[in-house]
Amino acid sequence: MTLSGRGRRLVGLAVTLCLVAGAGAGAPEASAQNVSPPILIIDDLGRRIEFDHPPCRIVSLIPAATEILYALGAEACLVGRSTYDDYPRGVESVPDVGRAIGADVERVVDRRPDLVLLIAGSDNARSVDDFQRLGVPSLALRMNRLPELRSAIERLGRLLGRGAAADSLWEAIARELDDVASRTADLERPVVYYDIAYPPPITIGHGSYLDTLITIAGGRNAFHDVGAPSPTISLEAIALRDPDLILFPVSGAWGGTSHPAERPTWSSLRAVRTGNVRRVEADPLHRLGPRIGRAVRTLAAVIHPEAFAEESQ
Predict the structure, then answer these.
(1) Which one-letter DSSP state was computed for residue 157?
(2) What is the C-alpha separation between 1 and 9, in angstroms, rounded?
(3) CA 33 to each of CA 20, 36, 70, 121: distance values in angstroms, whole numbers, following the listed order
(4) Which residues of the chain register pLDDT less than 50?
(5) Total domain count for the chain?
(6) Residue 145 — φ and ψ, nearest 5°?
(7) Are residues 145 and 214 in the same domain?
(8) What single DSSP character describes residue 123?
(9) Domain that holds residue 238
(10) Has residue 31 been placed in a domain?
(11) How far lies 271's CA from each of 202, 243, 277, in Å?
(12) What is the pLDDT of residues 262-293, one digit of tens each?
């Protein structure tokens, strides 16, 4: 019997369907539609990091990223942390592998990580190269500006299969920021000098997320026009900008810097002479992580105590 062209096509299709059905019944291999696509992440150095499944042994050398892991409910994945990772409660039980910048590679590798979270920056380039040379996957993140927090949360959520939790986390942070911004929108904005370190005087420029937080909290950063995140400046430059208010960050881990009123010649500043130097809690303000919404509310209460009296109680 001779088959027409159409008949041959029908027979071929029937044979193909039988082979597929037979393979599904007798072979243990997963069908193509059950194979999850790889997880592809681009880090802040432009590198492509690809995983077949979410990593389950993570060493975080970024304190803010460690907080994100906890906030996403992924703390069980954390097998190592930097010395500076001190929040939330319970993180101290995770093995300390040393420095956040200039990693102790041997101690990190001893934790057998399938992912290392690293600070992206020129001062940490050697650590990035070391882990790449050893074939240890790493994700480098920048945490200098507010949009970078959202990006880090979203990427870690996608990487860990916790996208919904990541969306909820960022939405909660954004709500807090928006609420404070709406409450300060019509308030008078004092010029604020943020005292990062001394000596020499170091403050914040608009390259820092702290510049954005001061704006949200109802102030104007005295050095907003400077692009660097943490520029070194002079007393003369501060005097020229004549800030209304000096914010002096303090915490248990943030010590050694003298109060502005105790520094030689700083009495030349109007804010010092009039007693407008106010302490602000450095933690969690100095960590661009999940607590930053609460931190900006505290900052607003320092800048505008009259409008946020309930926040300081």
Answers:
(1) H
(2) 15
(3) 13, 8, 32, 40
(4) 1-32, 254
(5) 2
(6) -125, 155
(7) no
(8) G
(9) 186-312
(10) no
(11) 17, 6, 6
(12) 999 999 999 999 999 999 999 899 999 999 99
Question: Do 301 and 249 lie in a common domain?
Answer: yes
Is residue 157 located within the same domain as residue 190?
no
The residue to which tokens 């050694």 are assigned: 256
For the chain, list the strands marked E by DSSP: 39-42, 48-51, 58-60, 78-81, 115-119, 138-141, 191-194, 220-221, 245-250, 277-281
* 12 occurs within a structural domain: no
**Does any domain span residue 200?**
yes
Residue recorded with tokens 């019944």: 25
What CATH number is associated with residue 200?
A: 3.40.50.1980
How high is the pLDDT of residue 181? 98
Residues 51 and 113 in one domain: yes
Q: Are residues 193 and 132 in the same domain?
A: no
Beta strand ranges found along 55-114 (DSSP E): 58-60, 78-81
Q: In which region does residue 226 sit, left (phi positive, over 0), alpha (psi from -120 to 50) or beta (all else)?
A: beta
DSSP 204-220: --TTSHHHHHHHHTT-E
Dist. CA 57–CA 156, nearest whole Å: 14
- Of all residues in the chain, what percent carry a pLDDT higher than 90? 83
Residue 43 shares a structural domain with residue 152: yes
Calpha distance 12→23 (Å, rounded): 17
Per-residue pLDDT at 35: 61
Is 9 inside a domain boundary? Answer: no
